[in-house]
Structures are given as C-alpha cells and as structure tokens.
Amino acid sequence: MEDNQKLLKEITSGEYKYGFTTDIDTEYIPTGLNEDIVRLISAKKNEPEWLLDFRLKAFRHWQTLEMPQWAHLDVPEIDFQLIAYYAAPKKKEGPKSLDEVDPELLKTFDKLGIPLEEQKMHLGMAVDAIVDSVSVKTTHKEKLAEKGIIFCSISEAVQDYPDLVRQYMGSVVPYTDNFFAALNSAVFSDGSFVYIPKGVRCPMELSSYFRINAINTGQFERTLIIADDDSYVSYLEGCTAPQRDENQLHAAIVEIITNERAEVKYSTVQNWYPGDKEGKGGVYNFVTKRGICKGDNSKISWTQVETGSAITWKYPSCILKGDNSIGEFYSVAVTNNYQQADTGTKMIHIGKNTKSHIVSKGISAGHSQNSYRGLVKVVPAAENARNFSQCDSLLMGDKCGAHTFPYMEVDNDTAIVEHEATTSKISEDQVFYCNQRGISTEDAVGLIVNGYAKEVINKLPMEFAVEAQRLLQISLEGSVG
Amino acid sequence: MLAEQQYIELFQKYRSEIDSHASSLMNEERAFSFDFFAKKGFPNQRDEDFLHINLEKQFSNDYGMNLKAVDFKVDPYKFFRCTVPGINSHMFFVINDQFYPNVQLKYELPQGVIAGSLREMSKKYPELIRSYYNKLAKNTTDTTVHFNTAFAQDGFFLYVPKGVVVEKTIQLVNMMYGGVDMMANSRNLIVIEEGASAKLLVCGHAMEERSYLANRVTEVFVGKGAKYDHYKLENTNEKMTNVGSLFVSQDQESEVVISEITLQNGLTRNNVVVNLDGEYSSVVLGGMAINDCHQHTDTHTIINHNQPNCSSKELYKYVLDGEATGAFDGRILVKKDAQKTSAHQTNRNICLNKKAKMYTKPHLEIYADDVSCSHGATVGQLDDSTVFYLRSRGISEVEAKMLLMFAFVNDVEELIRVPALQDTIRLLVEKRFRGELNKKCEGCSSHCK
Amino acid sequence: MLEIKNLHANINGKEILKGINLVVNPGEVHAIMGPNGSGKSTLSSVIAGNPAFEVTKGEIIFNGKNLLDLSPEDRSREGIFLSFQYPVEIPGVSMVNFMRTAVNEHRKYKGLESLSASDFLKLMREKKEVVELDNKLANRSVNEGFSGGEKKRNEIFQMAMLEPKLSILDETDSGLDIDALRIVASGVNKLKTADNSTIVITHYQRLLDYIVPDIVHVLYKGKIVKTAGKELVMELEEKGYDWIKRELGEM
C-alpha cells in the first residue's frame, strides 16, 4: 500500500528524475571532428597502432556517407562539428581504486540507485560505470576473474587483452555498416568488454551504466561481448542523462559473439533524457547492436525497454549462423510528448534449423511517433528456419502515431515465417471496470499498460523488471486526460 | 538514363502526333507528367517501392508504340469468346491502347450510362471528364503512371449517373495484339455517381506470345452511397509484362470491392491506391497470384483512411512454385482525425518450391488513437500433418495438396460478389493448379494459342 | 486380418516402439491400454502410415498385404481408418468437398464409379444420423471451430462414410463429456459387423464400458507386456498401472 502511495506521488509529480547534473571537473578536447581529433582520442587512450588505423579508416569512410533518411523519424540537422567527441571526469594519476573515484561521482551513482562502494554494492550484479567518455569504475572485477571471466572497460581490454579485442572488434558490426557505426568506430571512447571462457556460467549479472554528464558532448561507447563454447552470461545496460535544453548525441555499438552452445542475454533499460514536454532538448540515440550466433546451438536474446531519448534509432539484431541457433528480441518502446522512436530488429537466418522470436510492444502517447521496423531474412541455405513475430501498438491520445514496418524476405521453401500485428487503444470498458473497483484512471492505465507489456518485462532480470514497470508508468504520466 | 532517353526523344519528336490522336483534355495533362518522368526516370531497384522488380529493364526493350492510332483490322467480338458462362456482360475491348469502336452490345445499358472510348467521350463531354481526369493519378510519385499520362491517347470511360444501377457486369477486355513487341499505355476513367452502382470485370489477354508491355492506369470515383466492384483477371503468358495502376476515391458511405487475380503472366506490377475520402466508406481489397516458372508478381497497395468511421479489409494470397518470386507491399495509413477506423490486412503466402521466393512488407502507419487495426503476414508451406490427415482418408498426396491449395485461396475467391464470376474463377484456379491452363485463354475458341 | 510382427519404430531418431506383436481377427474388438508415453498413439500412427515415424524393423500384414509398402492413402483405401486423437482443422475445406473426394477416391480404388452429387448427399444424410452430427457441422470447414466433442463425432461420422475393415480409435474418449461419449460409442457399436474389427486405444476404462473389448493389451515402454480378456480392464482400474510395473519388477 505504501509502495502504491509512493508510486502515485511519483506519477503525479513524475518528471524526469535523473535530470540533475554532477559538478565535477571535466576534461574536454576541442569540439569538432577531423583526423587530428581522432588521433588525439587514440593518443589520450595510449592506443596501439592497429587501433588508430581502424579509427582512421572508419573516419575516412564516414566522410563519404550521409545520414540515413529511411527511418520514420524527423531528425533535425546535426552539426557534427559542434560536438565534443571526448570528455572525461578529471582524475588523479595512479592506479584506479575506489578512493580515486571522485566522491561527487560516487554520489551521482548512489542517486541513480547504483552504489559503487564496496559495502553498498549489489551482490548479484557487477557494474561498469561509464561517465561521458570513460569508464570510472568496474565492480566485482576480482571475483569474476577467479572464474576466468574478463569484465572491464574496453580501454583496459585494449591494453590488457589486445589480441581478443583485435580479433573480434568490428567483426559483427564493421565500420562500413552504417553512418553511425562508422562515426562510432572513428571516435569511440570507452565501453565495456566481456569475455566468458569455455564452460563458464557467469555467476552474476554484468551491467554497464552509462551517464552523459558533460555539456555538448557526444557519447560513443562500444561494447564487445564474447561468450565462448558452453558459456552463459546475462548482461544489463542502463543509461541516463541530465536535463539540458540542447540535444545530446549518443551513437553506440554493441557486438556479441556466441560460440557453440553459448548463450547471451542482453537487457537494456534505456532512459536517456527524452526532452521536455514541448520537445526541447533530449538525447538523440542512434545505436547499432548486433550479435552473431556463430556456433551451433547458441542463443542471443535481446530485451529492451525504451522509454527515454528524444529520438531512438536502434535495431538490435541477430545473425543466426550456427545450426539450431536461436535469436530473440523482446521490446517495449514508450514514446510520449514529442519523442520519436524507430526501433525493431533484424533476424538473419543462415544456419539450419534456426529459430527467431520477435515480440514488440509499442506504446505512443502525446505527440509522439513510434515505429516498429523489423527484417526477417531467410537465406537459401537456411533449411527449416522458423520465425514468429508479434508487434502490437497501443495508442493513447489522438495526436500520436504508431507504425509497423515489417520486412519478410524468404528464400527457402522449408521456412515458416509469421507476422502478426495489432493496434489498439485502452478501451473505456477496461478503464471503467477498474474505476468501478476503486482504481483511479491513472492507475488503471498503469495496470493495463503493464499488463500489455508484461510478456517483455518478464524477460528482464528481477531488479530491472521493477524499475522498468515504474518507468513505464512515469513515462506516460499526464498522457490520459 | 539510357532507357528513358529513347522515350524522351520520342515524346519530343512526336508530341503533335500524340496529341492529334487524343483529346485536348488529355493533351493538357501531358507536359507536367512528361517533365516529372524526364526528371526522375523509370523506377529502379534502389527505390524502396520497387525493391523486387526491375521495371527499368522491362521498359528498355525496343517496343512498338502505336502513337498514330493505326486501326488494327480485327473484330474482337468475332474471335473472342471469353465470356464468363452465365454472366451476360456488357462487353468492351481495348486493343493495345485503342478503344475498339464498333461496340456490339447484347443488352442495352440503362438510361444515362455512358460507356465508350475515353478519347471520344472526352471530346463529347469535356466538362464532365475534366473534373475527374488525372485528378488522382497526378499526385503520385510513381513515374510509370506519369509515363502513362504523357503517352496515353485512349482507353475506356464509364459514367453511371446518380441513382442508376447497372445490373449486369461490364466487361473490359484489354488485349495485346501485334506481330512485334508492343507497348500499350491505355487510360481508363470510371465515375459512379451518388447512389449508383456498377461492376466491372477487367480481363488482360495477349493474342500472341511476344514481349508485350501493358502500362495501364485506371482512375475510379465512387460517389456518396454508391457501390462499385472492380475485378481484374490476368491470364496471359510468360513473356508479358503488365503494369497496372488503380486509383480510387470514395465518398461517404460508398462501398467498393476490388479483387486482382493473376493466374498467368510473366511480370506483374499492380499498384492500388484507395482513398477513403468520405465518412463511413468501406473497401474490400483482395487478390491472389499463382506463379511458377520465372514469373513475378509485385503488388503495392496503399489504403488512405482520410476520414473517420471508415473500414478496410485487405487480403492477398500468393502461391509460388518453380523459380517464381512474389512481393507484397501493403500500406495502411490512418490519418490524424480518422477515428473509429477499422483496418485489417492479411497477406499469406505459400512457397511450394525451394527456389520460389517471397518478400512481404505489410505496414501500418497510424496517427489516430481510437482505431482497430491489425495486419498479419505469413510465408510457409502446406502443413505436413494436414496432408497426412487427408491421405489417411484415402486421398492421394497430389489430390490432398490440391485440396489444400484450393482451400488456401478460397477466401480470396469469396470476395467476388458475382456468383457466376466466382464459379468461373474457381474453375480457372483449379485448372491453373492442375497445370491444365496452359497458354490458352479459357473459353476462347480461336486464334488464342 | 491384421498381423504385426516385431515392430520397431522411431521418431526423430528416438525409438518408441520396441518390438510389437499383435494379431487382430475379423470381428474382434481389441483394447490397447497403457500409461502416458507408452507408445499407444505411435502405434496407431505407424499403422496408418504417418510419415513422421520411421519403421526400423518388423512388418505389418493387413489382409495379406504388407502395409509398410503402402502409402497412407492406400492403407485407407484398403480399409484402415484412424480416428485421430487430435483431429486437424482445415480452414477453407468444406466437409462436403472433403468427404466427397475421400469417398470417390475409395470407390475408384475399388473400380467403382464416382457417386453422383445427389447420391453422395443422400449417403451423407444417412451417415450423419449414426453419430447425430449436426447439419451445421457438415456445412462448415473440416473441424474448424468444432468443439472437442464435435471433432470426435466428426471422426466417427467419417468412419461411417468410409466403412473401414479396421478402425483404430486413438484416445477417442479424451475431452468428451458423458453424453458425447455415449453418442460416439453408440456410433461405433452401430457400425460394428461380424467382419470388421476395432482397436480402441485408451488410457482409461471409461470408453470400454460402452465399447466392450474381446481382448485387452497393456502397452508399456514400447512393448505389449500383458494380454488378457476384458476382465483385465477392471483389474487395471483397481490396481493402476503401477501393478504392471511391479509385475515387471520395476518397482
């Protein structure tokens, strides 16, 4: 009951609650983008020659590209020369230990519900905390190392495990993949690196927490997860940004590789600042996420709850290369006010007996536009491929839009590919029924929306699921009249 | 722009020739569309709307165009007996792109109904036709349509005045004819006024197995409370390319049924744009394609829910065998204030052969909240356990699969509201599945081989 | 009539039937009972020729013919009828069209003329009464939207139409209430003659109160482990399948 009261209060006052800024010393490099900036970033991170090379190639390729226009999004012109491509909280020299982390930052993460201090840490979760361009702290590192699991920032991985990074980086998302992938490959600053050795089930959830703090800064992180034969890991990603009037750019890459019988579960609760009620400010979120089920019988599962960002452009995908491999995509995307989202997945069936399952739940309110865009492709060699996609849209209010763009390309006659989609609104009967039982309209909508999204929320790890439910309700605050 | 260049030069060189065999009303529209075409060229496969069809290549062939409207010395009424048993239609012919003028009707048309050559009628009734001609087609970005507007000189015109009911089906036979590769750009205009009703059956045939290309555009205006059925049947041969664009505007409470059936054709592109422009209007849009060998059917539909309280139901089915390919792109757009919209779209496809390929993209764009919309799409095969169930009752495997294929397309056939036509289509579909429909036009007694 | 010798069968490489021996004579009613997963439904599928199963060893002789050489449809035409545990829904295929095709294929096999439309409809009317099948159902698509009971009645109706020599009723009682069970059983009994035989596959004794077997077999782990007269039904009902397991020394 008390929880309910708290929730209600939160809803009625529910603005973006992560919108504060942290007052820390930040080191910037000059704004703008050219080869010198790319070299500077690489030098700051003391990178080997091959990586600088990779960045420069990506940058040169990026210069030949134009912003993609095919999404159902109205993206204002972005001046890539007005963005700072590197910002880092200043820190003292010397080895990284908790004492080194700025107490202001610790407070920040405390406030975000992600304590980094030893005594407060979540027991079942290891966190890599990333502020602006750099990783400030990775928890539980030693404990994981006992099992041979590598969990660190990608900058550390470049120094400590260069062969692994070199082998896999860009192998799933090449820098030539798209405009934002090329940009990220040129200027990425940090991110997380995970390696799970053969036969190891990772004993805790691994998590990255992204925070954009600095002003006029883009965040370009890069995550690389490698799950060797017979291993398993569940990985979580969370993010927030301060409330600022300007738009901030976030263009990330996530690459996942699963070898034989390995399984990776990747969950995201995306809560970047969505802009205010008039559509001012907010994060532009252009993300390329892709995994390859390289080994037979492997599995990659994407779960996302997207509530934040002014613009979301993101299609977590699976390349089902190994025989009997499985790809899954579960998504809830909420847009309110003037938010725009164009999100979905790609399932590329290559191996034999591959399966994919797509569940997408879109919720649009206010003046927002919410699109599902997904591709299911079955190549000629992919015998017995199976796909089932379900895309539902829920509309709240008459000024928003909900769109579905599924693409099915089937080149093999043993495939069965099915797509179902519905669009509906919350029925007055449902709301009345709740009202009659004493439930307020706002709560009834919360209940119904959570019921609608349950199939996806249930796929999230417990702690995240609770958070996601609250977020859903808060994001839709004020959307029923 | 190589493919385009020959037509650009042709148009510029023969503009006066083109004009002299058309009506001034049609000529007025040419310049805009020609410029549009000259600027954008033929659709190519980089264009999302033409991903799976290479029309540029089809248009590059060296076709004969009958710009001088030379009269072919044929009497289609004599050798063409493609009447559907029991349908007793009013029959009209367009040979390549010219309306066949010696109309012989078995039955009188109801009073006030005008049916005939678009060229002649637009000279005779310019005021009537001016308020409709090119009003829907002009806004498209599809350059094949603008190509048609630039070159079309004739076609079929039908006008059913207020309150008049045409009981019998009106049949329009589009016939490709000629001993060389030919291109035809014909233009049809259908106006059904308030409270009126009519049914049109459009059949596409090719007299010889040559590389013919037909690029036909039809505009339909359906008035308040009016009813209109549009059935299109393609039964030609492997070498034929058929590009058909149908634009429909519906006023309040009007009811339209459209069904497009491709039994046999080399390359088919069907564009359908339906505008629900009046409240409480409804449309049922359906079709099927049965493709084998290297045939390809490409369907592109847009249903615009521009007003509240309208309903649309869309159902397309493909059966692909051999190395046939199919593409379906169905778009339903619910405009901002189109509340209480009901829109349901289904596309189901069966691939019978490993080399058959299907691409489908059913999409919904919805800007109103009080709507009931759904879409579903599947690509699969005949279900093994169902085949076994039938076999366990003594039905052979071949026959079991036949039954299931008939069942698969059954609901598309049921959309046809003319019983005699529905029966005939069932029969043709069965023959098609059994491979008995070779290159002959069903029911045709001569010439047709 | 039916003789099964040392029958072994697999599905997806897993052996389900591990040496079945069974003889059914004309006019006999056999019951095959057994716990879940013992292979009962597999046996009926294999007799009917479901291609999902692979026979690895043994033979099935039916009226002198080797059934394993025959396609499922020819087995049907030879007089084998399987009442499915889960009858398949076939949207768009009307019952009339379905049954007319089946009946005429059977007739063709026997060298008989196809039935005229009116003779066929007459036959349908007659047979519908056997199972009290609603006219409405006969006009719908095969099994589509039928309730569990309606589907089972529809199976028996088809049995009446095709007049098989050997009927296999696979769990025909599952999902039936007592009234439906009575109708189905009485339908089966009405169709019973001195020449045709029936195999009733069931988990419970319930159906066997209505269709009384001459011989009862217990199938367990892919083998027939016990064969006796109808008194075995009561004994199983009292003692449960654990009794069989105990006898086999498994408990």
Shape of chain B: globular
What are the segments of chain B in which pLDDT stays under 50 over at least 5 consecutive residues? 439-449
Q: Please describe the biggest sheet of chain B, giving its number of strands, its sense, and whether it closes into a barrel.
A: 11 strands, mixed
Count of distinct strands of chain B: 21
Query: What is the count of distinct domains of chain B?
Result: 1
Structural class of chain A: alpha/beta
How many helical elements of chain B? 11
| Strand content range of chain B | 35-45%
Indicate the mean pLDDT of chain B: 90
Return the structural class of chain B.
alpha/beta
Count of the separate structural domains of chain A: 1
Oligomer: heterotrimer
Radius of gyration of chain A: 22 Å
In DSSP terms (H or I, runs of 4 or more residues), the helix count of chain A works out at: 11
Count all strands of chain A and give the number: 23
Secondary structure: helix percent of chain B: 10-25%
**How large is the share of residues in beta strands of chain A?**
25-35%
- Which pair has the most extensive contact? A-B, 35 and 36 residues
How far apart the termini of chain B lie comes to 37 Å
Furnish the topology, listing elements before pairings.
The complex is a heterotrimer of chains A (481), B (449) and C (251).
Chain A: H1 2-12, E1 26-28, H2 35-44, H3 49-63, E2 87-89, H4 103-111, E3 125-131, E4 134-138, H5 141-145, E5 150-153, H6 154-160, H7 162-168, H8 179-187, E6 192-196, E7 205-211, E8 222-227, E9 232-240, E10 247-250, E11 253-258, E12 263-270, E13 282-293, E14 299-306, E15 311-314, E16 317-320, E17 326-335, E18 340-349, E19 355-365, E20 369-378, E21 386-396, E22 401-410, E23 416-425, H9 428-436, H10 441-457, H11 462-475
Parallel strand pairs in A: 3-7, 6-8, 7-9, 8-11, 9-12, 10-13, 11-13, 12-14, 13-15, 13-16, 14-17, 15-18, 16-18, 17-19, 18-20, 19-21, 20-22, 21-23
Antiparallel strand pairs in A: 1-2, 3-4, 5-6
Helix pairs in contact in A: 2-3, 3-8, 6-7, 9-10, 10-11
Chain B: H1 2-20, H2 24-28, H3 30-40, H4 55-60, E1 64-65, H5 76-79, E2 90-95, E3 98-99, E4 114-117, H6 118-124, H7 126-130, H8 143-151, E5 156-160, E6 170-176, E7 182-184, E8 187-192, E9 197-206, E10 213-222, E11 227-235, E12 241-250, E13 255-264, E14 267-276, E15 282-291, E16 296-305, E17 311-320, E18 325-334, E19 341-351, E20 357-366, E21 371-380, H9 384-391, H10 397-413, H11 419-433
Parallel strand pairs in B: 1-7, 2-6, 5-8, 6-9, 7-10, 8-10, 9-11, 10-12, 11-13, 12-14, 13-15, 14-16, 15-17, 16-18, 17-19, 18-20, 19-21
Antiparallel strand pairs in B: 2-3, 4-5
Helix pairs in contact in B: 3-8, 9-10, 10-11
Chain C: E1 2-11, E2 14-24, E3 29-33, H1 40-48, E4 54-62, E5 65-66, H2 72-78, E6 80-83, E7 90-94, H3 95-109, H4 117-130, H5 135-139, E8 141-142, H6 148-162, E9 166-170, H7 178-190, E10 197-202, E11 215-220, E12 223-228, H8 231-239, H9 242-247
Parallel strand pairs in C: 3-10, 3-11, 6-9, 9-10
Antiparallel strand pairs in C: 1-2, 1-4, 4-5, 7-8, 11-12
Helix pairs in contact in C: 2-3, 4-6, 6-7
